[in-house]
Write a structure and sequence with these properties.
single chain, alpha/beta, Dehydroquinate synthase-like, alpha domain, two-stranded antiparallel ribbon, 16 helices, about 55% helix, globular
Length: about 350
């Protein structure tokens, strides 16, 4: 069986990369004629302006996005069409990258990813999280032809965003177990050992990293490489399976019940991972707790003041959503009492 796989042509993670974008593109044999920059209206726009000046791109080719709705995607696609764009350069956190990759996919241009936060594995994945008529959906999108990461920019990220990336990456351990389970039970026809290996080893690398300073350059490189490899694992698998299982169901359930929440993606996934591993594998549960403790993640989760009632409701709801994504939640029958006990145990660890 032949599977077409889109892998980035280059990945650059270096100091002051934004000031060297022109050089990086040249040495990667990328020649751009009609670029368009997509960024948000926050801090990332400052970084986007550096890239714009470096590549001598006119101001009217810089598009600012403010929400991740399908209307916003349509607006950006119309801009790309009008400007006859050949490359969309997405610069920002989740929002700008999601809109850029979906615009590239639907309009038919190339996509370059310049993430400014290390908070999720969408920096190089073929999936965009978009609000379609009020419902958050994961839609097929373009893989980037290249990824440029400025380590100085990443170092400016608030610690919560680094923790979010660590939790999203660690959750691969849970996701690959659900993927394998679904495959063995006949609910998934595709299972790819190579994608599994990429997802697994990038999670293990961050868990076993011998340092607790999350701002150390070595750790950030392990994290960023891991997040990129997770995205590539999804492309190889042909789905987000290697990086999204029952713990992501919990996160989606939380968002659908409480759409106005201010928790980061990785924080919801991290709590989901604790709960799922509590039921599935106590060894993994202990391993995550120890790792969260070492990095200061438990302390950070305490500060965001999680609501126990909401966590309980989201866990209950997680069992009823994304039915097509077979996971441990379909496999085990849990009583309300068992769930209550698990949530209490996790809250005890956090507080
Ligand atoms: Zn995720």
């Amino acid at each position: 069986m032949y599977n077409s796989i889109d892998v980035p042509l280059f990945i650059t993670i270096e100091d002051n990369a934004l000031l060297k974008v022109k050089k990086i593109l040249k040495r990667s044999n990328i020649f751009i004629n009609n670029p368009m920059i997509v960024t948000d209206k926050g801090v990332s726009s400052t970084f986007a302006d550096v890239v714009r000046k470096e590549l001598k791109i006119k101001k009217d080719r810089m598009i600012y996005v403010s929400n991740n709705t399908d209307d916003e995607v349509s607006r950006v696609i119309a801009c790309a069409r009008k400007l006859k764009v050949d490359f969309v350069i997405g610069i920002g956190g989740g929002l700008a990258l999601d809109i850029s990759k979906l615009t590239s996919y639907r309009y038919g241009s190339y996509f370059i990813s310049i993430p400014t936060l290390p908070s999720h594995d969408g920096i190089a994945s073929p999936v965009a999280s978009i609000n379609v008529s009020g419902t958050r959906m994961s839609l097929n999108a373009s893989m980037p032809v290249g990824i440029i990461i400025d380590i100085e920019v990443i170092k400016k990220a608030p610690v919560r965003f680094i923790y979010s990336g660590i939790m999203d990456l660690m959750s691969n351990l849970s996701a690959i177990k659900d993927w394998q389970l679904a495959y063995e039970k006949g609910y998934e026809v595709r299972y790819n050992g190579f994608a599994r290996a990429l997802a697994y080893s990038s999670a293990e690398n961050i868990i076993n990293f011998d340092d607790s300073d999350v701002y150390s350059e070595d750790l950030l490189r392990v994290l960023l490489n891991g997040l990129v490899l997770s995205g590539i694992a999804m492309e190889i698998a042909g789905s987000s399976r290697p990086a999204s299982g029952a713990e992501h169901n919990f996160s989606h359930a939380y968002d659908s019940l409480y759409p106005q929440n201010f928790l980061l993606h990785g924080e919801k996934v991290g709590v989901g991972h604790l709960l799922i591993s509590y039921f599935r594998d106590k060894g993994e549960y202990k391993k995550i707790i120890e790792c969260y403790k070492r990095y200061g993640i438990l302390e950070s989760l305490r500060k965001v003041k999680l609501d126990k009632e909401k966590v309980l409701n989201a866990f209950e709801h997680a069992r009823t959503i994304r039915k097509e994504r077979y996971s441990i939640l379909n496999e085990i029958k849990l009583t309300e009492r068992q769930i209550e006990r698990a949530v209490s145990e996790v809250f005890k660890k956090i507080s």
